[in-house]
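Troubleshooting log. The previous run stalled partway through. Resubmitting the same two chains, unchanged.
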Amino acid sequence: MNMDDVKLQLYIDGELDQKETKEVEDLIKTNPSIRKKVEEYRQINNLLFEKYKSIEQENIPQKTVDLLMQEKKSFIKQIFNYEIKLVNALAAAAVVLFVAMFSTYNFDNNLNNLNVENKNAILDELDNIIGEKEMSSLTSSIQQKNIEYKINREFVNNSNENCMEISFYEFKIKDLNIDEAIFCNKRLIKLKFFKGDLKPI
Amino acid sequence: MNEKDKKELMILMPKLRRYCYSLTNNKDLGDDLLHDSIVKILSKFDFLKIDNFQAYVYRLISNTWKDNLRKKYTRNEISISTEGIENDPALTVKDKDNLDYISAKDDVFERVQNLSEKLKETLMLVTVQKKSYKEASEILQVPIGTIMSRIHEARRILTKQNDELKKEIKK
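Second attempt completed without errors. Output:
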């Protein structure tokens, strides 16, 4: 396949840009053998296109149309499809469970290694941290200080008069059980520690 | 398959039928191929993640046709031709009157059907379906360079046979 042939193929099939198309057209004008070749290729293209194009005017066989339009999922197919989704869901749940268990294990393991001095150090750190108001920035600050933490649960109560939304977070920071982090309208208002100490913000 | 996909397939159907017809060169066989392909699409569709629906459908038709040929071949019902010109019955005909009788059009169609399936499906995608080289490469999952060389080879064979046929007629 020489270069001229490649260009001619691309020209016939409309794959050249404007500039290259012009070059080939100039070549065709001056070179009879190339012109003959192009005509021959075009004739083949046109013959094939015209022959098979005609079938588009005819109606699609009814049995094929019915097959498509009246397709109903068989029970087995539905079950199979359901099973695929179920397997995916179970796999995702297994991964989440594994990660959760693994992180809990590490956390609890570290708890046993803490002493009183550590607790005080952490409390000092918390004093610095709780200037942050939003829960997301609070947790990110805790992360930045490399203090391990775990949020156990979150629940929201909308019944308070002063706050549109009160959130309670029960979480652990190392060996300190912070029973509740109370948020009013998503802003931290106080932390309640395990031993009942209230730390107003 | 949901209603939106069905609608898309329905719109595509005339073009798919044309492709089936061009591969089989026979309307009935083409319709059977289309039907078989739709059956396959419906049975597989819900379980696949398809990025390019059109390319997938064209590819499935090509593969279904090749599977059908293979099955027939193993049952000795047909012989699959090579891409050479040796098997072209038109070239073995010595009777000049007979050659004159065969129109140039019929020659082209017959010789195209004697191309190898790879060359034929590529040629049909580009010339009959008016697919770009890029689209053809996505459908057949081969590089664009392969599409170019297949098209070139198909045309080379067809025009070479054309020249030889003309020489035969002149004798």
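Takeaways: DSSP finds nine helices and no strands in chain B. The interface with chain A takes residues 1, 6, 9-10, 13-15, 17-18, 21-22, 27, 30-31, 34-35, 38-39, 42, 46-47, 105, 108-109, 112, 123-124, 126-128, 130, 132-133, 148-149, 151-152, 155, 158-159, 162 of chain B (CB under 8 Å).
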